[in-house]
# Entry
Amino acid sequence: MDLFAQQWGTYRAVVEHDLMEHRAIAAATAAVLEEWLARRSPADPAAQMVDLGCGDLAQLAPLLRRLPLGAYTGLDLTPQVLPLAQRALGPVTYPCQWIEGDLLGWASDGSCDGSRDGDPQVDIIHSAFAIHHLSEQEKQQCLEALRGRIAPGGLFIWVDVFRNPGESREAYLQRYQARIASSWPQLSEQQKEQVSSHLAACDHPADRLAIAELAEATGWRWRWAWSGRHQAEAMAVLTTA
# Structure
């Protein structure tokens, strides 16, 4: 089994056993998007959506199939997942494109007014469990850049893991790794080790309070739309201030 298949198998086990509350996240995402779309005027053009770190779309595809979007772009750093996402979504009434790329690169590749090689701003930006891989400085850069990429009145849905206010990264990692060891019996010991090693090497979750203050300082309005049971997973909804 190649490395991608092994790691993706572990990821799928986490999702299928709902160990990070993906089902509740999907329901919360649907509620936010459907409410936002319902408030739009019939005269508004159909919304353009970009999904940063789209993964295989296993959770989001049923929602996307029923949304009246004007276009959808799925971007992911791992090229192997893009055909999986395309297959999960299936035929829809709006155009889709699939891009191998880095979310910070997409956010930053353009002028400060939001243009990107002549591309228009987008109405909806969605990102789930991807931005926590960025450093603190990169998160600030990302928030600033995305503020320029969003259309007036647009919506940014940020699903991720976050630290409690004042909690260090080390304390967060210890707490999360203890959760994996004690309450994820559905995974094998090898799979648990894979997840714990990934956390230690790659995860830099933002402090909940500090990141909200930073977002507001960069021109966003911030609200928490959903928080999980474990004081880690959460969804923030950002709109233009």
